[in-house]
Amino acid sequence: MNLAIIPARAGSKGIKNKNLALLNNKPLLYYTIHAAKNSHFIDKIVLNSDGDEILEYGKTQDIATLKRPSELAQDDTTSDKVILHTLEFYKHYENIVFLQPTSPFRTYKHVDEAFLKFQEEQSNALISVTEYDNKILKAFIVDKKGYLQGICNDKYPFMPRQKLPKTYMSNGAIYIIKTDLFLKSPTFLQEKTNYYIMDKKSSLDIDNAKDLEKANELINYN
Q1: What is the C-alpha to C-alpha distance for residues 83 and 79, in angstroms, rounded to an integer?
Q2: How far is CA 100 from CA 121, 136, 144, 160, in A?
Q3: Contact status, residue 68 vs residue 58, Cβ threshold 8 Å
Q4: How many CB atoms lie within 10 A of CB 48?
Q5: Taking a C-beta distance cutoff of 8 angstroms, is the pair 218, 204 a contact?
Q6: Which residues make Cβ contacts (< 8 Å) with residue 119, sequence separation at least 6?
Q7: Helices (DSSP H) in the chain: which residue ranges?
């Protein structure tokens, strides 16, 4: 049995009441709920929020809702705390599928493909990613003594980019993990964490008004 958790905090600095902001005349939250409801692998959906308006919308979509306390709805509240709060009420699920509502172009097909990979390759966890410029591997950081060192190692900064390994960035769209492992160690980066690659458009993350404007352009164009 698989539990989908959708975190939707009421407060937002980039866009006021972001999770209910309209994208093609539907609340941003709609697209993640729709993806979860249409997935063939999700057995239960829980919307975790501190916002009454958000929770009321969730009820209209026929999914479970859970009110989170205000101390878990701060700017610096991490995802692991929201998940652990949800698991206090929904314990008996084998896997967690964590779906953030700021990824409206992540569809149920992405969720299903990611879960199939997670399942078939016997992963402990999976994170959706998009390819990222591997030039980052040529960067430096400053150590405690004030001297330069390679961000990853001291060889990569001087290697041709063509010989550097590919790099990936989490796109925030899909996280999957075995529940028992998360309870023991609340992080998605476990031993045997797999990845699911998504394209740039599907990876669009809504953080500010420009992102929302771009998303409206893309959804209307297609």
Answers
A1: 6
A2: 24, 26, 36, 36
A3: no
A4: 25
A5: yes
A6: none
A7: 28-38, 52-60, 79-87, 108-120, 179-184, 209-221
Give the type of residue at 171: N
pLDDT at res. 178 = 96
Strand bridging mode 22-23 / 2-7 = unpaired
* Rounded CA separation 217/187 (Å): 35
- Rounded Cα distance, 129 and 114, in Å: 11
pTM over 0.85: yes
* Three-point CA angle 96, 34, 203, nearest 5°: 75
Q: Please report which helix (H) or strand (E) contains residue 176, including its range.
A: strand 167-178
- With DSSP H G I counted as helix, E B as strand and the rest as coil, what are the percentages for the chain, rounded to 5? 35, 25, 40
141-166 pLDDT, tens per residue?
Answer: 999 999 999 999 999 999 999 999 99
pLDDT category at 221 given cuts 50, 70, 90 is: low
